[in-house]
From TrEMBL:
Gene3D superfamilies: Ribonuclease Z/Hydroxyacylglutathione hydrolase-like (3.60.15.10)
Class of the enzyme per the UniProt entry, highest EC level: hydrolase
EC number: 3.1.-.-
Gene name per UniProt: rbn
InterPro entries: RibonucZ/Hydroxyglut_hydro (IPR036866)
Keyword vocabulary terms for this entry: Hydrolase
SUPFAM superfamilies: Metallo-hydrolase/oxidoreductase
Protein name stated in the entry: Ribonuclease BN
GO MF, one example: hydrolase activity
Length: 59
């Protein structure tokens, strides 16, 4: 299932998640645009990051 960043952030907030990690971002988004998507999600769910190749997150 694909979601917008705001949909994903809303679901994370609703689920009382601790951390939202966005992934599978279209290649049409460059680094700056990807960060804008992250910032958009952070307006709804502040603890949001974007997974990049070889990213490591504690869960």
């Amino acid at each position: 299932m694909h979601s917008t960043t705001t949909e994903a952030a809303g679901l994370a907030k609703e689920a009382n998640a601790k951390h939202l990690i966005l992934t599978h971002i279209s290649s049409r988004y460059d680094k700056e645009a990807s960060l804008a998507l992250r910032d958009e999600a952070r307006q709804i769910f502040p603890n949001t990051d974007i997974a990049e190749d070889f990213s490591v997150f504690d869960i």
